[in-house]
Amino acid sequence: MKIFLVLGLFASCLSNDLWAQSSMKPTNQSATQTSQKLSASQQAIVTVSAFMAQGNIPQLTKALNTGLDAGLTISEIKEILVQLYAYAGFPRSLNALQAFSDVLKERKQRGINDPVGKEPSLLPADTNRRQFGTDNQTKLIGMPIKGGLFEFAPAIDQFLKEHLFGDIFGRDNLDWKTRELATISALASLGGVDSQLRSHLNIGMHNGLTEGELTHLVAIIQTSVGEKEGAAASQVWQALRKERAGNPSTK
């Protein structure tokens, strides 16, 4: 139980000093990548994640229907709503999962049988969760993460590595690009987590999200979720783009 209580604080615990280590060196992005837009299903992930994080069940219900209509599977949506408890907390995750269950029942009554999709594979029983999670964290971020807050509170390092990066990011029914798309959307909608949002924008690009896709994500937050949230996310994103453009090591 201690693991889950601490993980719920994840989005608010990581500092600028710690996550400065995660400024990756992405590959060059072509003009096509810069102008690339999110697909219909990816756009639905943005709104599902955003409204889940805010606890806006009426809007989440609409977004869930849109996501299913756009081709997201039941497994994919459930996985997103489960993953985001680490950023938005258990109450928001549980309420969102209940809303999703209600949506599926209502759609089934209308004769709509949505595809279940791929279920996550089970890890081998002898998996070393600490090492597995550490390896996942290093691959996801692009380098080992240590020092700073992790030395101040070693327990959070253990819980992040074993549970978030091991148990959650180790599940294979969503790729990491999709997981980061959901995480960034949730953080952009929460407010007060600019440091974490900036870090995950970098991590998202390290895992395949393009500048064009992230610009589109921010625009969706502003037009569909909230002008205040969108403006704040845009400020973080534009500052990061400016920094990356002026840093030769990110070319």
UniProtKB/TrEMBL annotation:
<feature type="signal peptide">
    <location>
        <begin position="1"/>
        <end position="20"/>
    </location>
</feature>
<feature type="domain" description="Carboxymuconolactone decarboxylase-like">
    <location>
        <begin position="33"/>
        <end position="100"/>
    </location>
</feature>
<protein>
    <submittedName>
        <fullName>Uncharacterized conserved protein YurZ, alkylhydroperoxidase/carboxymuconolactone decarboxylase family</fullName>
    </submittedName>
</protein>
<dbReference type="InterPro" id="IPR052512">
    <property type="entry name" value="4CMD/NDH-1_regulator"/>
</dbReference>
<feature type="domain" description="Carboxymuconolactone decarboxylase-like">
    <location>
        <begin position="154"/>
        <end position="233"/>
    </location>
</feature>
<dbReference type="InterPro" id="IPR029032">
    <property type="entry name" value="AhpD-like"/>
</dbReference>
<keyword id="KW-0732">Signal</keyword>
<dbReference type="GO" id="GO:0051920">
    <property type="term" value="F:peroxiredoxin activity"/>
</dbReference>
<keyword id="KW-0575">Peroxidase</keyword>
<dbReference type="InterPro" id="IPR003779">
    <property type="entry name" value="CMD-like"/>
</dbReference>
<dbReference type="Pfam" id="PF02627">
    <property type="entry name" value="CMD"/>
</dbReference>
<keyword id="KW-0560">Oxidoreductase</keyword>
